[in-house]
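A favour, since you know our structure tokens better than I do. It will help me judge whether the discrete encoding reads sensibly. The space below this message is yours for that.
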Amino acid sequence: MFESQNDEIEKFDETKQNTAENQKLLKKRFNKLKHKALYIDAEYEEVCDVFSHAKSEFISNMFSYCADRKLRPPLSDDNKKADASKDDAETSEEMKDLYREIVKATHPDKTQNLDENEIEERTQLYQEAVSGKQKGDYWGIFKAALELGVPIKKLSFSYIEELECAISDIEKKTNTIKNDLMYKWYYADENIQASIFEQLTKNQEKYE
């Protein structure tokens, strides 16, 4: 997905990445990624909200469907998705620097003159950054830094690559949700919804 952009970066001499010319090119690439990252995150949050409602509707309608036909519902309490994030993951020095800047930007001394809503937003961004650092899911750190406008002191190839990987991860998570049966059921017409329930319950036991 990032082949064309990476071709541009590969033209750089990594041993000279701190030169003014390369920093300018990295800055240009970073600005493109920044806008893409915020757009993709907004889409992900919207898809998550829809999926939460879709899941509730799916389960409620499934129980009604089964009750009408005196079938035991094929649902259990084990519907949680496994968290593939890594606990106590190693954090790069650049991520540590970015995290420290986030901590500074969200410190009470920096937020005491802000209104309640902004303080709450900054607190939430700080919590996402903490969670991302602990689990090795760097999107939380990137998102907080981007939304807080934390300045990047010096861009590097590895930072750009980590941001690209974080964006790719969010895209994968979004697509996983969109391919979930409950999400697809939610957007299907009534006939397809009924067909899905029929397939899911065809081997379920009846009760009297």
